[in-house]
Write a sequence for this structure.
């Protein structure tokens, strides 16, 4: 009796069952959100997915932290909102791009894939409380749409199981309810000091930047990160084989030009033609001498030395070894370990009004119980993208006492002006309301 062969259908069905099992095995909404946008990628082959709950993006494929101001996040939220206005967000379907606005269609082409499937999450009363935006480059076939519709029921059930709706009602008499409301309103008028948290790093103050003096390949780094160096110490060495050969060729070319000039100078007394060429040959000698000096200078630059005492500040020597660099490219920084400042990246959504000398408190990741005080010195007017892909304002602060070690990271707490507690608590909701309705 022959054993049955496992075909493609059986494998797909097994992957589908495993995906349902992983969904039900989630122990928190954060774990479930990660699973909804990542675990189905091998089965359905989508480029990216976004989970929306109550109209807001909660998770995106391969992204650990969601920036609410990111272009892709804003596009998905607007597209899903328009999908609901058209009455197309209640059922699992392939999103019709032609029915969206012209602006969303233009954003679609630059921010998402060509074919998008909308998978709504529905509660037991039949109301949509979220959904999954699945985008890929090829169209969704009918079999995949059936599997996704079935998977949507599993996703909805799993999310409702981890976050059930629990109505809460204040069980007080009417008179006490009025007193509680009045007390809460009075508390909202209490002036409090505004503050915001932002990631921060201890960076060198007035450090010397060591840049690449020539175009070439770095042969070896002779210092390690945070190593103490003295003036004149060799920091790194470029590959010098080509430069040595160029210097040797230039020296030989200079010797040939000098010999030719000398020969013509000796014949100039008897040969008028040789006498007329002396000026030209002398100029050629000077040209070859300049080429030789330039080649020797490049060869001398292949060894980069420290111009001041301090510590070498850079990430990793292995990242530079063997890498071609261009003239002026930043390689490392030499800084005084006793002179450092605090660099803060304040997200656009968290920005508050800060005085020029606002107080800053730094809590290091390595020592979260100790507070390092600093004073704000500079604040950028324009937001710039961070390495993490978020838009943030760069702020620089000077430490009030001895600074921590350069390179340490932590969380900075920036203190603003005093404002009513209501404004402190409702600042973000009010900003969102203004952006939504324009009030």
């Amino acid at each position: 009796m022959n054993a049955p062969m496992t075909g493609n259908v059986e494998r797909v069905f097994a992957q589908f069952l495993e995906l349902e099992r992983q969904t039900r095995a989630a122990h928190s909404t954060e774990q479930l959100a990660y699973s909804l946008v990542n675990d189905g990628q091998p089965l359905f082959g989508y480029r990216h997915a976004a989970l929306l709950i109550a109209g807001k993006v909660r998770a995106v494929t391969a992204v650990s932290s969601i920036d609410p101001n990111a272009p892709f996040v804003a596009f998905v939220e607007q597209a899903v909102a328009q999908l609901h206005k058209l009455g197309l967000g209640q059922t699992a379907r392939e999103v019709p791009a032609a029915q969206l606005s012209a602006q969303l269609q233009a954003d679609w082409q630059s921010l998402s894939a060509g074919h998008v499937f909308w998978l709504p999450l529905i509660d037991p009363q039949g109301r949509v409380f979220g959904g999954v935006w699945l985008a890929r480059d090829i169209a969704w076939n009918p079999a995949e749409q059936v599997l996704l519709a079935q998977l949507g029921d599993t996703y909805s059930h799993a999310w409702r199981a981890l976050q059930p709706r629990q109505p809460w009602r204040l069980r007080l008499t009417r008179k006490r309810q009025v007193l509680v409301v009045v007390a809460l309103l009075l508390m909202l008028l209490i002036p409090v000091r505004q503050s915001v948290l932002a990631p921060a790093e201890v960076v060198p103050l007035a450090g010397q930047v060591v840049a690449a003096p020539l175009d070439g390949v770095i042969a070896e780094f002779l210092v390690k990160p945070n190593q103490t160096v003295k003036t004149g110490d060799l920091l790194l060495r470029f590959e010098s084989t080509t430069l040595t050969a160029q210097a040797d060729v230039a020296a030989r070319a200079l010797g040939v030009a000098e010999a030719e000039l000398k020969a013509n100078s000796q014949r100039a007394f008897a040969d008028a033609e040789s006498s007329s060429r002396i000026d030209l040959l002398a100029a050629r000698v000077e040209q070859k001498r300049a080429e030789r000096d330039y080649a020797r200078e490049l060869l001398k630059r292949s060894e980069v030395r420290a111009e001041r005492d301090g510590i070498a500040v850079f990430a990793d020597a292995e990242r530079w070894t063997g890498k071609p660099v261009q003239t002026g490219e930043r390689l490392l920084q030499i800084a005084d370990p006793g002179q450092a400042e605090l660099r803060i990246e304040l997200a656009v959504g968290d920005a508050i009004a800060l005085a020029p000398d606002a107080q800053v408190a730094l809590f290091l990741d390595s020592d979260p119980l100790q507070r390092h005080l600093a004073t704000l010195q500079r604040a950028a007017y324009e937001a710039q993208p961070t390495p993490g892909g978020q838009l943030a304002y760069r702020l620089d602060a000077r430490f009030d006492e001895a600074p921590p070690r350069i390179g340490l990271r932590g969380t900075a707490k920036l203190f603003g002006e005093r404002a009513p507690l209501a404004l402190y608590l409702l600042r973000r909701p009010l900003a969102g309301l203004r952006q939504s309705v324009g009030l």
Q: What stands out?
A: The chain has four domains: 8-162, 207-238+302-330, 240-301, 336-437. The longest strand covers residues 191-204.
